[in-house]
Write a structure and sequence with these properties.
Blueprint (H helix, E strand, L loop, with lengths): L1 E10 L3 H12 L4 E4 L16 H8 L3 H5 L4 E3 L1 E6 L2 E6 L11 E3 L2 H14 L4 E2 L3 E8 L2 E7 L5 E11 L6 H5 L3 E2 L6 E9 L13 E6 L2 E7 L4 E9 L11 H11 L4 H4 L9 E4 L4 E2 L3 E2 L2 E3 L14 H20 L6 H25 L1 H6 L6 H11 L9 H4 L4 H14 L1
Parallel strand pairs: 1-2, 1-10, 2-7, 4-13, 10-19
Antiparallel strand pairs: 3-6, 4-5, 8-9, 9-10, 11-17, 12-15, 12-16, 13-14, 14-15, 18-19
Helix pairs in contact: 1-4, 1-8, 2-8, 8-9
The protein binds flavin-adenine dinucleotide.
The site of flavin-adenine dinucleotide (FAD) has 37 residues, from helix 1, strand 8 and helix 8.
């Protein structure tokens, strides 16, 4: 078997692994990045948060991504029947990016990896990590290419950015149950043949169909729009052999706002389903490895936090590894685990408050408090480490308190 020695092996070239690669390259670290797929490949996760723009920038990817004309996302609209709630990222508490993109991930992730390759970073596509063994912090991974040729890769550090591949959580027995109730999502891409002119056409929207059922509508700049439903898992048929297209067309008819626009549109593929998508792990790092992006924790799609965490953790992991390889001491518990866990905890509070109805009470309350909205908007833009924002620092009670005040006001 062929042998290779590198300082760092990155598993996965999605946003997390790609941002790590860009930063390791800037720091002059010797690394190898592999992905089991050939890009473009489909993955869900199409609504970004402004915070990720900082990570694309520091990884040296942003200038290239700007050239593609991806649909600009300046905020998000939430609907519930006749109620409408808008958050615009240019009116938020924390300084930072006030726009981002809504993107077909196949093309976006290909654009990212093309950008890396244009800087001379080689990506081994169609190359799967099959096994990993550790000897202290040194690892030996067996990788296999499309022709079945195997190579032993010796690395001082592994960044596991394998997303739902969850390579190290499985090998190292790191899986932990998510505290969130099991939910399922079904989604499809459609040809948006009735797309209205003007601002309405590209406006990303989340339509609340009932308390725990919400529908997403994410229009791309290429004429395709992503539609999806999130609901408790028991809403979907148990047997997988049902007619998914007619089931999804019934879902579209549940959205009074969108049924006319999408009732007869052509589906680009049969609706896909991800059952029980929330994932968690016992720990985020170990001797010689770190988990980033979806291979660590995934909460829920409702606030589009997935890619933001993928790029945040990919960026931080790469910086800390660079620091350690240059001889500095890294406190992984404090500098990585506690930092990432804080952001996850903030979003988890908002997700739980969404499904309990507290956050929806605030979103759809007619008498708006602009200061509170600006603070919540920062969270929705991904700025969940700004502890000057009380809606970050008191995340586990701030929304509940507001919802209770609104309910008391209604009852008095
Ligand atoms: C229903 C649903 C909707 C979502 N919507 C959103 C959204 O709107 N916005 C958002 O930000 N997030 C969303 N997400 C989350 C988003 O999909 C993920 O958070 C994001 O893709 C994670 O990026 P990543 O780089 O960690 O992993 P990925 O993008 O999944 O990349 C992982 C890569 O690792 C490769 N890989 C896996 N196993 C191996 C192996 N053994 N060897 C080599 N390579 C391997 C894969 O081929 C893949 O390319 C959603 C998730 C779900 C379930």
């Amino acid at each position: 078997m062929k042998k290779e020695t590198v300082d760092v092996l990155i598993i996965g070239a999605g946003p997390s692994g790609a941002v790590s690669a860009g930063i390791l390259a800037k720091n002059g670290i010797n690394f190898k990045i592999v992905d089991k797929e050939r890009f473009p490949r489909f993955v869900i996760g199409e609504s970004l948060l402004p915070r990720s723009m900082e990570h694309f920038e520091e990884a040296g990817l942003l200038d290239d991504l700007m050239k593609y004309g991806f649909e600009k996302k300046i905020g998000a609209r939430f609907l519930r029947g006749e109620d409408v709630c808008w958050f615009k990222f240019n009116d938020k508490f924390t300084d930072g990016w006030d726009w981002t993109w809504q993107i077909p991930r196949a093309e976006f992730d290909k654009a990212i990896t093309d950008s890396l390759e244009s800087k001379g970073i080689k990506i081994d596509f169609e190359t799967k990590v099959e096994s990993i063994t550790f000897n202290g912090s040194e690892s030996l991974s067996v990788i296999s290419d499309a022709q079945g040729n195997k190579t032993e890769v010796h690395a001082k550090f592994i960044i596991d950015a394998s997303g739902y591949g969850r390579v190290l959580p499985e090998i190292e027995n790191l899986e932990a149950p998510s505290v969130l109730a099991p939910k399922t999502s079904m989604f499809v891409h459609v040809k948006d043949s009735n797309k209205p002119e003007g601002i309405e056409g590209p406006t990303i929207t989340f339509d609340v169909l009932e308390l725990e059922h919400w529908f997403w509508m994410i229009p791309f700049s290429n004429g395709i729009t992503s539609l999806g439903l999130v609901a408790p898992s028991d809403y979907f048929p148990k047997n997988d052999s049902y007619d998914k297209e007619s089931f999804f067309r019934d879902i579209i008819r549940r959205s009074s706002y969108y049924k006319d626009r999408f009732e007869d549109v052509e589906f680009v593929f049969e609706p896909k389903q991800i059952i029980g998508y929330s994932k968690s792990v016992k720990k985020l790092y170990g001797n010689g490895y770190v988990l980033t992006g979806n291979s660590s924790e995934f909460l829920d799609p409702v606030f589009s936090s997935g890619v933001c965490f993928a790029t945040e953790s990919g960026s931080l992991a790469a910086k800390l590894i660079s620091k350690q390889l240059k001889g500095d001491v890294v406190d992984w518990e404090k500098e990585y685990s506690e930092y990432i866990a804080w952001g996850v905890d903030v979003f988890r509070s908002y997700i739980q408050d969404w499904y309990s109805g507290d956050l929806q009470e605030f979103f759809f309350h007619k008498e708006e408090n602009p200061e509170v909205r600006r603070k919540v908007c920062s969270v929705l833009a991904g700025y969940v480490w700004d502890k000057n924002n009380p809606f970050v620092s008191k995340h586990n009670r701030a929304v509940k308190a507001i919802a209770n005040m609104i309910r008391e006001g209604k009852n008095s």
